[in-house]
Amino acid sequence: MELSLFNILDILGTIAFAISGALSAMNRRLDLFGIFIIAFVTAIGGGTLRDLLIGSTPVTWMENIVYVYLIGLVTILAIVFRNKLFYLRKSLFLFDTIGLGVFTITGVETGIQNDLNPIISIALGAMTGTFGGVIRDILCNEIPVIFRKEIYATACIIGAFTYVVLYDLGVNSDIIYLATTLIVISIRLVVVKYHISLPSFYLSSERNSD
């Protein structure tokens, strides 16, 4: 079977999110079963939501068992080489960022290929990119990154918007895939490096005490 760049990116995103899920689970000291579950739902969460929203069933990982085997293999490797992965500085952030960038593009591409409105396609890209991480964080009893001050979903939206613009301009699809994926990843790297965040709003302590 000949793999397109789209398929390769989808597989790369699955691998990246599976590793980020496994690392999160090990950070929370979960048992072997818990590690596999977190890795699995992180890897397939965004793609599953994407497929369900456009009515594409069975969803990709149910239709192609290779994804299940791939997630299992990657999780085992993450466990075996956990000390090496933890030694890599901010490895969880790295794999999460790769998965975010790749899945955002597969989401917006799916929307466009299904003739959805560009705004809906952008939203689909953002949801595909972020949903797996949301599930991972909730199951690991953490506030999802998307709900914190960090620029996370915004990076997805910018990348997806760029994808739509380049697509309308007739740019080669492979160039669009690579360029927009790198845009999402680059935004995440820059905002974390320079501590750029969105403003947060909250009630004052005086009002809360009333």
Could you characterize the architecture of this molecule?
- By secondary structure, the protein is mainly alpha-helical.
- It has one domain.
- It contains ten helices and no strands.
- The protein is globular, with a radius of gyration of 17 Å.
- The chain starts with a helix and ends with a helix.
Task: Please specify the SSE layout and strand pairing.
Layout: H1 5-27, H2 32-53, H3 60-63, H4 66-80, H5 82-87, H6 91-113, H7 118-139, H8 153-168, H9 173-193, H10 205-209
Spell out the helices and strands N to C: HHHHHHHHHH
Task: Report the principal-axis shape.
Answer: globular
Gap between N and C termini, in Å? 65 Å
Structural domains: how many: 1
- What is the number of strand segments? 0
- How big is the Rg? 17 Å
Class from secondary-structure proportions: mainly alpha
Q: Please work out how many helical segments DSSP would assign.
A: 10
Main beta-sheet strand count, sense and barrel state: none
Unreliable segments of 5+ consecutive residues: none
Q: What does the average pLDDT come to? A: 91
Share in helix: over 70%
How much strand content do the residues show? Answer: under 5%
Summarize the structure.
The chain is mainly α and 210 residues long.
Keywords, please?
210 residues, mainly alpha
